[in-house]
Write a structure and sequence with these properties.
heterodimer, A: mainly beta, seven-stranded mixed sheet, four-stranded antiparallel sheet, globular, B: mainly beta
Chain lengths: ~120, ~110
């Protein structure tokens, strides 16, 4: 099956610093990756769609200068939370689509805590 | 816009009980429907899917039927196990749109 690996699984950072989260497709090439944010007891909210070699498409209300997305290769997308604040604390999940299939494969998520 | 309304949890059942988690949707066109499961500490895994009306998705004893007339995709299992304890998400993907729209998730706990 297709495997998506997300790293780190947990990170604690100080307010004002930046943190990078990696999402890798281990056994397939992913032209499109998605970044979601999951609030406690709430659903996954799509933040942005990342296409290899081009700029990410952000959902309405998501600050693109705060949540920097880079999809430099067909197997790696990164999300950088810049100048993090406690309200950025959340569970971030990536997913990758293999080819033109409708199925998306998810990483295990990253729990970010900003103190 | 598209939306998914899912039965709120948490749901607690005894082992071997019958499970139903309700899911209804609002969407234009003909969406594909999915159930994802998230086990503790893990990412989401596709549990089952249906791509057109009256299709039944099934996997690991779970079933869901795409009902266009009631815009529903309820998840059922005849006899749950402790290992089924997880959070279940209903989702849709509309034709021509890569994005998944999720419900709020339902936490299921099965007690021995």
């Amino acid at each position: 099956g297709a495997v998506v690996s997300q790293h780190p699984s947990r990170v604690i950072c100080k307010s004002g610093t930046s943190v990078k989260i990696e999402c890798r497709s281990l056994d397939f090439q992913a032209t499109t990756m998605f970044w979601y944010r999951q609030f406690p007891k709430q659903s996954l909210m799509l933040m942005a769609t990342s296409n290899e070699g081009s700029k990410a498409t952000y959902e309405q209300g998501v600050e693109k200068d705060k949540f920097l997305i880079n999809h430099a290769s067909l197997t790696l997308s990164t999300l950088t939370v810049t100048s993090a604040h406690p309200e950025d604390s959340s569970f971030y999940i990536c997913s990758a689509r293999r080819g033109l299939t409708t199925e998306a494969f998810f990483g295990q998520g990253t729990r970010l805590t900003v103190v | 816009g598209d939306s998914v309304t899912q039965m709120e949890g948490p749901v607690t059942l005894s082992e071997e009980a019958f499970l139903t988690i309700n899911c209804t949707y609002t969407a234009t066109g003909y969406p594909s429907l999915f159930w994802y499961v998230q086990y503790p500490g893990e990412g989401l895994q596709l549990l089952l899917k249906a791509t057109k009306a009256d299709d039944k998705g099934s996997n690991k004893g779970f079933e869901a039927t795409y009902r266009k007339e009631t815009t529903s995709f309820h998840l059922e299992k005849g006899s749950v196990q402790v290992s089924d304890s997880a959070v279940y998400f209903c989702a849709l993907n509309n034709f021509g749109n890569e994005k998944l729209t999720f419900g709020t998730g339902t936490r299921l706990t099965i007690i021995p």
